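Q: Joint fold for the lines below.
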Amino acid sequence: MINLVVALQCEAKPFIHHYRMKGNANHSPFRIYEGDDIRLIVCGIGKVSAAAATSYLHSVHAYERNCAWLNIGIAGHADKHIGEGFLIHKITDAGSGTSWYPPIVISTPCMTDSLVTVDRAEYNFSTADIYDMEASGFYATASRFTTAEIIHSYKVISDNRSQPAKIASEHIVEQLIGEHIYTVNEITTQMNRLSSRLYNIESVPEDMDRFLDSWRFTSHEQNRLRHLLKRLTVLSPDENIWNDTLARSRTGKEVLTYLQQRIDSLPVSYSATK
Amino acid sequence: MINTIYIEEEIEDHPRTREICQRFPKARLIPCRHYGEIFNRKNQNFRLQKIQPALILAKKFKNFVLDAPAGYGVGGTQNFYFSHMLNCVYDCRYCFLQGMYRSANYVVFVNYEDFADAIVEKISKYNNSRSYFFSGYDCDSLALEPVTRFADYYLPVFRQYPDAWIELRTKSTQIRSLLKTDPFQNCVVAFSFTPEEISNVLEHGTPSIEKRLDSMVKLQQQGWRLGLRFDPLIYQDNYAEIYERLFNNVFAKIAVENLHSVSLGTLRFPESYFRNVIRLYPDESLFSGPFEKNQGMTTYYSYIEHSMLEYCKDRLSRYIPDHILYPCQYAA
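A: Joint structure:
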C-alpha cells in the first residue's frame, strides 16, 4: 500500500484520474481518495498541514503496517526549468535547520536533488536547493510510522526567478504534475514492492490465531509462540503441526515446550533448507 | 556500485574525499553536517538498505584505537582494533554488524593521519610488548581497497614498528596493493572461511572459497605472512564432514610455514543484536538455532559449541603446530 500526500486539489487530480481513485466520504478533515493499493490525501498548504494529514491518514489505517509514503507537489528553484521533476535526497526544514536524508534504495527514474521547506512562499531562492512548503512536515511525521527507505518526496518545478510562483494557475499546476505521472508511477511501483517485501518479512505466522483460540498465552508467551512458529515454518515449511501430541497439550506452556522440542529435533542443514 | 555519497561538510575538500569521489563520477554527492544524521537515525531498515548501500565520508574525532574484546587475539599481549570503515560490502548472514548498526551504508573515516597518530601513540606506550592491531573488526579490511586505499596508507605506518602487528582480515581478493609492495614480518593477512556449503548460502556477495585461496596462494608466493580464520564456526548436522573437507582443501594449497596463526571462533551475538537480526531476517534458517542464551549472549548450545571447537581443534592439529592455533573463547 502506498499513501500519496499532496497539498492541492489540482496536484491530486492527475493521480485520482490515473489510478482511478474514488473519494472516501467517511473522512471529513481532509479529502481522501482510494484506489488499488494506493491512497491519496489532500493536505493543504504548509508543513503543519502536511504533518497533520500524514498523521491523520496513518491513524485511520493504523492497523496497516509498512505502508509506503510519497509526498508529491510543485516547488520552486532559482534556475531549474519549469516542469523538471526531482526525487528529493535531502530535506531541510528552514525553521529548525533539521535535515533528513531519505535513503534511496530504488533505482531512480529521474534526477534527485536537495530541498528546503520554508514557511512562506520563496521568491529569492538564496541557495541552490529546491524550495517547497510541505516536505519537512510530511517526512518528519511519516518517519514515525514506517522505515525511511519507503518514504519519499517528489517535486516538480513550477516556478523560478524568471517565472515566480504567483503566475502558476491551477490548470498549469495540474498539467505540470500530470506530465510526471509515469515517473511517479515507476517510483510508487518500486516503493510498493519494498512495502510488500517488508510486509511479508514481518507477517504473523499463519496458524497464530488458531493457537491463540485454542490455548491461553501470556503476552510474553505470545511473543515466544510467534517466534517458534516462524522458526518451525522456516525449518519445516510443509509440516502439519496439528497432530495428536499437540492436541494433548493442556496449557500454553506445554504447547511452547512441544514446539521447542519439535524444532530441536529437526535437522540443521543450510543446503537442505534453501 | 555506489550511487550515493554523503559527505561531511568539514571534509568536503579533504584530498582523500576528492580521490574517493572521483572513483564514482556518476554518484550523487550529498553534503551533511555529521555522518550520524544518516547512519544513526532511527527507523531505518538494514535489510532494505543492503539493496543499495550508500557511502558516507566522514571524519572521526576520538576513540581511534580501542581495546579488542577479551579473547580476541592471535598471540599478542596487547590487542587493539581500529576501524577506518564501518560496515562491510559483503552480506554475511552471521555477521554481528547487521544487528549492531541501524544502517547498512558504509562509513569511511578519511582522516587516516589521525588514526595513524593514535596507533603510534599506543605503540610507544606499550613499547616492549607485542601489540596487535586488528583492522577488520567493523569492516572487511581489504574489500573496498581500490576505493579507500586503506592498506596503501596504513601498511607503511606499521612497517616502521616491527613489534606492532597489524592484522588485515578479509574475505576479498583485493590484494593488488599488497602484491605491489614488499611483505613485512609484522603484517598478517588473514582470510576468513566457512565450508563451501555454508558460504554459498550465508555469505552473500563474497568471493568463492577457491578465489580466496587463490589470493592466499599469490600472497604466500610473495612471502606475506598469512592467517586463517574459521570464525564463526557454523553448525549443521554434518559439520564434521564439511569442515574436514574445508581443512583438506585449504591445507592442500597453503603451506604451514607461511602461516602466522589459525583461529577458531564460535557464533555469538549479544542478545540485543540477535533480537535485531531475527527481526530483519525472520525467514533465515541460520537464526532458527539451535541456540541458547548465555550471560547476555546468544550462542549455540554449549555442548554443540564445545563439540565443534574440539573437533576442529583436533582436525587442525593434524596440519599445524599447536602454538599457532588460537581457539578464541569470547567472554560473554
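Q: Anything notable?
A: The two ends of chain A are 29 Å apart (CA to CA). Chain A has a mean pLDDT of 93.
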